[in-house]
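FIELD: query
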Amino acid sequence: MVRSLPKIDSATLIAFGCTVLLLLLGAAAKPGFLSLDYLVQQLQVAAFLGTIATGEMIVILMGQIDLSIPWTIAMGGMMATGASGILGPTLGVPLAIPFGIACGAAVGVLNGLGVAYLRAPSMIFTLGMNAVAQGLMVYHTGGFAPQDRATALMVVLASGQAIHGVPNPLLIWIVLGAATTYMLTQTRIGREIYAIGNKERAVFLSGVDSRRVMLIAFALCGACAAAGGVLLAGWANRSYQAMGDPYLLPAIAAIVLGGTNVLGGRGTYLGTVAGVVLITLLQSILSVLQPQDYFAHLGVKLPADVFRQVVFGLVIIVMMMLYGREKAVR
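FIELD: result
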């Protein structure tokens, strides 16, 4: 039976409601916060996070997690910008973007092999792969200083507007989101992903090769992270080490805020969209209001980026307790 289109659940509605509250708070704190140009800019920023969160959501739906996201993002961006030095100027420029995404997918395949076939805990294995990717990228940049400038196509994809008023990253996110929603709701592998998140053993005993599904899911996660790295490199017009570090916690926070159960088996892509928009606006509000200054008066001094990480971490802990307890009761 084909899965029906996702319904708007309470978590998604709450996320959209919080988004409206943040918009009102931002409008009160900063004139012009609700201007069309500013909102479009926020959607463009959200598209980078949304692209990365797409793959992570697929993995989390299976009850797994991918912690190699930060350096997979960096690998995607750095391999794409360095393609001309690796593949040569003739092949490097036209194949830069596919090459960067393929490198990320390769990291995902290794993650999938370790988690699905070697039965290693996803948290430990992917964290190890993140360190491996970091080492490879440090060697890549320190050994022979490859080209770090984005190609013209990367810049256009990240900064241009194929449709007037609509940033290209937002268009890419819309297409990616539509494809992901179709896969999760209308295809066999989508149903298998949800089923594995609910009870992998039962899925395996029913004749489904759950290991193959996990391998595909992790490969998609790596490809999405690398695609986000390619877009970020085009946005900054260069790639650099640790460019993916700020995106792991926000991506996970956006997913759980949107109602995806961190223990697997439940969640909609619409909820992830709501979570991504909410996290993006929350980052903007934190930059505008500077609440860490208030805590500094109380003797708690935290840099702005550290304060944001604390907020995201608390969000994940609270949502984990809510959804984890709910599934345990059922």
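FIELD: remark
DSSP finds 15 helices and no strands in the chain.
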